[in-house]
Each structure stands twice: as C-alpha cells, then as structure tokens.
Amino acid sequence: MTPAIELRGLTKKFGDFTAVDGVTFTVATGEVLGFLGPNGSGKTTTMRMLLGLMQPTAGSASVLGYDAQRETELIRPLVGYMSQKFALYEDLTVRENLQFYAGVYGMLPAVHRPRVQAVLQTIGATDHATAMAGHLSGGWRQRLALGIALVHSPRLLFLDEPTSGVDPATRREFWDLIYALAGQGTTIFVSTHYLDEAEHCTRLGIMHAGQLLAIGTPGALKQMLVAGPAWEVLANPQLTALSALQAHPGVHRAGLQGDRLHAVTLPGTCTAATLQAALVAAGCLDTEVLPADPTLDDLFTELALRKTNPQA
C-alpha cells in the first residue's frame, strides 16, 4: 500500500541555517504519527514543505501518492491543516466559520449543510454553533480550528501543536477527538512538544535541531535507546538525595519528577539496595527505591545528549 506520507532526505536551508536536515521517514495510512521536539526543531517547516507551502532546498516528499513539490493543487483538497495560528473569523459564529471554509473548499450548500452539522457533533460544538468565534475560550477556538480542518472530509490531517496553550482537561478531550478520527480511517500527522501527548501516538518521530533523531513506537524507542534501568526514588531531604544520586558513579542521570526523583543508571551498576544505601549514607534516612519504566523525557534527553556529545 502506498504510504500516506513519504519523505526522502527532505532539507530546508535559510541561508547558512539548516532548519530541516535530510529527514527521511514514512507514515502509513490510518496511522497517528507524532512529531516531537522543542520549538525551533523543524517540525512546522517540515509540515509546510509537505503541504507545498514551502519549497525544499533538497530531497523530496510525497503526500497521498502525489509529489509534494509539483502536485500541490492535487494534494490540498485531500488534506486538512490546523496551523499554530489558525485564522478564525471572529465576527462570524462557529457555524458560519465552518460554512465559509466549506465554501472555500468548493463544497456546494446542499453538500456542506449536513457536513457542517456532522462536524459540529464531532467536535462537540453543537450547543456552541451560534456563538461568535471572537467570544470563544482558547479550548473552543482550538476545537473550531479542528472542525475547519475537517469540514471537507480530508483523508489526511496535519495538526501543528493543536493543544498548545489549552488546559490539561481540554488537551485530553482533544486527543480523544484525534483517536476517534483515526478510528474512522483518517491518517493523522501531529506535532507536539508535550511528552505526555507523544505517548498516545502510534509511532513517534523525535526532532532536534532540524534532524530526525529516532522514529518508532514510544515503547520500543524507550527500551532501545535509554541508557539503562530506571528508578523511582522517594527520599527526604529531596535535594540532598538528588545531589547524592547525581554524584553516584553508576547513575547516568537523575532529576526531579513531581514529588519524587527519577534516575537512570548504567547497565549492571546499581540495584535498589545499593542506591538506597548511598542515599542513607548521604543522610537521607527515609528512602524508598523502586524499579520504574523509562520515560519519554529519558529518551529525548538521551538522544539530545548523544547528538551534542557523540562520545557520551
């Protein structure tokens, strides 16, 4: 089956600055591919090249079997794009915004009226249909922006940091919508800088400084690339415990994680008992050390470290 998206050495330079550096990967039909990385890592630039909004400096890409550089007019009716700063018409209602964009996509009123109603139901906005877009909260504006990207029934959705700036509850609801769409057969390519969101993706591509550092399922990437065993540490005083862990020769990395500590150790160097003994020796008498799963934070930190210091 032809991939929904295929990139081959895709590169974008702005003068001497390389924003995207030789990126190669594919996205299967029906997949939810997450694109994880900090701001400025090349996520949006990659999306814009796939949409034909920006020409690559080198390499090539195809979207739904069409050349992203030469056949953009054939691609656009088949995809939806929710950008970071989507243009809503604030003096139109939610329904009117959807109707307007349906018209932009060439949908006749007889077709778009039932489709707009279906989209209102999909995004949970039926009761907000007559609300002015300019009066919507951040979460509802994001829902409307998603609805606009969906109104023409695209086969592929590009979502560029769709939950940026909304509260955690709204983020969870938004991801419920994403998975409902994927369950209906829509391919989703979503960028994010939230590690917890990345866990929900079928596969995950990790970007850093314009390069694709790794791609795979979140579970497989963590098992393959994190240095060694991970541990959850409850100890008092916490900062003393953190210093003791960071000074321990077998600890690869340690840091705060909520109300506890999280440590990654080098293979074959530490056990729960030896870590606990080191903490007690440092003056942390009330301690508990438990095995833990590696996190995406561990994974991203490890990959970034390898990029900046290949000998690490």
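That was protein one. Protein two is written in the same sequence-then-structure order:
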Amino acid sequence: MALTFNPIPVSYRKMSDQRLTDRILRMKKKLGKKLVILTHHYQRKEIVALGDYRGDSYALSKIASEQDAEIIAFCGVHFMAEAADILTSEKQAVYLPNPLAGCPMADMAEITNVMHAWRQIKEVLPDTRIIPIAYMNTAADLKAFCGQNNGLICTSSNSTGAFKWGFRRGEKVFFYPDENLGVNTANLFGIPKKEQIIWDFRKRKLGGNTPEDIKKAKVILWKGYCHVHTTFTAKHVKDMRKSYPGIKIVVHPECPEEVYDLADAQGSTAFIVKYVSEQKPGSTIAIGTEVNLVDRLAHENPDKKILELSGQTCAMCVNMYRTTLNDLAWCLENYQDIEPLRVRDEIKSDARIALARMLEIKK
C-alpha cells in the first residue's frame, strides 16, 4: 500500500487498497451528480480508474469549465486545480486530494521575477507590442498577469495556436516558463535561432541578454524546464532505433529540442495516448514522457510493445505520484470539513480572461 506525505489520519494510511477503493466508490454513489473526479494522465493507474474524466491539462480545464457538479476532486497538481477553480462558479468547490502536489517547473517562474523581466523588456522596447503567453504550468497570479497584459495561457496541446494568436496581435512573444516547449514551438514557426533568446531569471540584468539581443528577438523564452522530460536525450532515441529497427518514437514537446527533432511524432499527453492507440498491432513504440502514463499505455495496449524511451532511467513526476487512494478516500469522506482550493477574486478575474482565450483558440 502506498503512503503519502499528506497529513491525513493514520487510520487512512493503514487501510488496504481494496478497502480504500470500496470507500471511494461508496462516496461516488452517495454524492452522485454532486461529485466529479478529474484525473490527469500522469496519475497512478488506480486513481485514473476511479476518475469520471481523464485527460491532459488542456482537456481537464475545458471539462472543468463545463461541469455543474458542486464538488470537483482534481487528481493532478496545484496549478491544475487552480485553473479549475478559476473556470468554475462560486457555488462549486475544487479539492486537491493531496495539497502538496505541486510543479517544480511552475515554481521556476515566480511573479516577482516575471514582473522584473517584463519591466526590463518594456524599458528596452517601450513602443513594441509584446504578447505574454504563459504555459498552463504556472501559478494563478501569473495567469492573471497574462490577462492584464493582453496575453493568454497555452498547454502543450495548443501552443502552436497560442503562438499564432500572439503574433497576430503583437510583434514579439514573451513565453514562460518552459524553454523547451517554447523552442520547439518557435522552430515550428520557422523562427531563426538568432530571433530566439533565453531569459535566465537568475541573472538580474536583462536575463543575461543585451538590449540588442532583445530588439532582434521574435520570441523571448523563460529558462525553465520539466525535470521529467529533460531526462530524455538524443542518445536514448538513437539507442532505441539501434535496438529495435522499425520502432516508432513519440515524445512530449517539453523534451529538449534534439530529442523532439529525432522523434517520429511529438505532442501532448492526449496526443501520445491517441498516437499509441492508432498504431498497428505488433508495433513497438518508445514513449518520451512520464512513466505512469507509459506504464498505463502498456497495460491498455497489450497487442503492442510499449517501452520507456529512457530505458532504465525512471522519468517519474513525483508530484503527480503523491496522490494516492488514501488521499482521495479521505478527501471525499471529509470534504465538508476541508477547506477547498480557492483563488483570490482579484487574481481570478484576470486569470479567467487568459484561460478563456486559451479555450477559444484552435490547437
């Protein structure tokens, strides 16, 4: 039985997985349409099995915005539950079963650092229209910043559409916090390397750039990354092709550029799920993304050989893994005594604008 760092009662920690599952199912039946459970693709198999909906952050944001349920249990990480709260009504309550489930990438873009960068960029380019685009993996205040400054949010599902949206409205795009997704999307647009610059938030003066660099740039990319997807290397791709001739390789766009370019297909978690399901029986497929999704796809596609791209290296999102049956059972059985996740009203209104734009654009 998996344990968690979430400070739930010891009694819940000691229950068997079967008993926890039975209690969760009992609460689902008791609450009926009042409850909806959303599960991200990276969650444990046993959590995904109990969800009403599964998907990537884009799909789950859209689903959350369409729900009438009073209680939304979001089995994901903190920024996802925040987005659900922003997009739902005041009568609805969003719960994160394990409140410690965060995102290291999101933490790399902190509001004071982004505001500092924005001020410096505007000082260099006072008359240039710059469109901020925040990846979904950001805190609510950074989503609000985009809403306040004519920007929007994107996910790995629709980053291309977001860039198109941005360049129709401005001369430059300021993208944060994932450098790799930004580089891979900029490359799709054919933006030359000399017009892509990286803003290193640890360097107080112009993010390590010169004023001339900033003036020439079409895209300004934050120096952030996903620790899971930077596990994968070009060597992993080449080794897989050598070991398994004819193998198909699909990777997430948070992977480094050299991995992205060597793969057969690239896309969000939802794209990866669809890609695998569409391959012929007997296919061998290596996947460059979080191990829980790879493992689940292997179980769901027994007619195919599913491999982790990095081989023996475990590409796991420990924050996604935090949410256990213990957490979900305790959350559902005690929701009336738990404080739901709430985004402050002054942040929510501007963040909702940016998220609504995300939901309106084409992928």
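The chain is about 45% helix and 15% strand. Keep this in mind for the problem set.
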